[in-house]
Write a structure and sequence with these properties.
The protein is mainly β. The chain has a domain of about 260 residues: Beta Barrel (Porin), CATH 2.40.160. The chain contains no helices and 18 strands. Strands 1-2-3-4-5-6-7-11-12-14-15-16-17-18 form a 14-stranded antiparallel β-barrel. Strand 17 and strand 18 form a beta hairpin. This is Outer membrane protein. It comes from Nonlabens ponticola.
């Protein structure tokens, strides 16, 4: 649903708003992954590449009818690129790899029957490695600089969720989430190497000099989201959101454009779902959840004076697992999007993503009536 986080119900985990755990009535386990195919175009030519990753692993557990908690793991940032060229006088190659992951514990409780509050503790960790290599014709050895950053630190997320049943039987939902700016630490190591370029363009290292580890303080930027939704329970819902993200520090890299500026980012999302008849006994497809959404993001990245934006349109199906009133489902999502521009010699990307997830919901800790 374009990433909309305003909607919450009693059987699914809302990974973005910890206040939603207060409404859980069943223990829920969910895991998901995504595969993306990207087609890039510029004035210099075209290229394509792909990536596959785990999106989330999460468990949510209700605590009576007024509270709940959950924990899990979410990879939230990755680096992966290879850029370079070879001609008669020069060989250049820039590469980067690594990711940042987030382990979290969240809890939510009801302040009133309609209003819930929640908080989330996050531990962020990961590693990024960036390399730049250059070799010149007539020079015996090439030079490679490798920057390795081991990153770790704590951050928090807070949320409010409002769910009001109106006189006409429909529901009005509202949500606010706020992630304050947090400091994390990068432990940076730099390696300077000499290499000999082989015929197959492999870099044969001759010797390496490693610098002492340096600590660097980084910032995870603040993030505020406000959303409102309207719909009928177990039948349909439509929600809109606005998010504002502050400017945070960027990890020092061996390859970074000189013409880049970072500004505050903003995103706009509209998403919803429709269920023909959630408790149908005669038609499986009447119990399927049909989802869709639109999003537009101002990424906050400015390259060569051009603001980089991103657009996406998504569709999805929630396929019930089991018969009757089972609340478990297999979820499939498709998204098409664009980011960037070919103006000023930059790159425009068209991407297609398919996401697959499993959500298993059941009642735990039932008191036995009979032994």
């Amino acid at each position: 649903m374009a990433g909309v986080r305003t909607y919450a119900d009693s059987v699914h985990i809302n990974l973005n708003n910890p206040a939603a755990y207060a409404g859980l009535r069943l223990t829920s386990f969910t895991v998901g992954g995504v595969h993306t195919e990207t087609f890039a175009s510029s004035n210099a030519g075209d290229d394509e590449y792909d990536a596959t990753s785990i999106e989330y692993v999460s468990l949510g557990i209700p605590l009576g009818r007024k509270a709940g908690f959950g924990f899990g793991l979410i990879p939230f940032q990755s680096v992966g690129y290879t850029i370079g060229e070879v001609n008669d006088v020069r060989y250049t190659r820039f590469t980067g790899e690594g990711s940042l992951n987030r382990a979290y514990f969240a809890a939510g409780a009801k302040l009133t029957p309609e209003l819930s509050i929640g908080g989330e503790f996050r531990y962020n960790f990961g590693q990024q490695v960036n390399r730049s290599s250059i070799a010149l014709d007539g020079v015996e050895f090439g030079t490679r600089i490798e920057n390795e950053s081991d990153i770790g630190g704590v951050s928090f997320n807070f949320g409010l969720h409002y769910d009001k049943r109106l006189k006409n039987g429909n529901n009005l939902q509202g949500a606010v989430t706020f992630q304050p700016q947090s400091d994390i630490t990068a432990r940076n190591t730099r390696r300077l190497s000499r290499f000999v370029l082989q015929a197959d363009l492999a870099e044969a290292i001759v010797d390496t000099d490693e610098s002492d580890e340096q600590k660097q303080d980084l910032n995870l930027s603040s993030d505020l989201t406000i959303g409102i939704g309207y719909g009928k329970s177990r039948q349909w819902n439509l929600a809109g959101e606005y998010s504002r993200r502050g400017t945070g520090s960027q990890v020092t890299r061996s390859f970074a454009p000189d013409n880049v500026n970072y500004n505050d980012a903003a995103s706009y999302r509209l998403g919803g779902f429709y269920i023909p008849k959630f408790n149908s006994l005669t038609s499986y497809w009447d119990r399927v959840v049909y989802r869709g959404g639109l999003r537009y993001e101002q990424t906050g990245i400015e390259l060569s004076g051009q603001d980089i934006s991103e657009f996406g349109i998504s569709f999805g199906l929630g396929l019930p697992i089991g018969r009757g009133a089972s609340f478990s489902s297999a979820n499939i999502g498709l998204e098409y999007g664009q980011r960037g521009t070919q103006d000023a010699g930059l790159i425009k990307e068209d991407f297609f993503s398919i996401s697959i997830g499993i959500s298993l919901s059941d009642k735990w800790f039932q008191k036995r009536r009979y032994n």
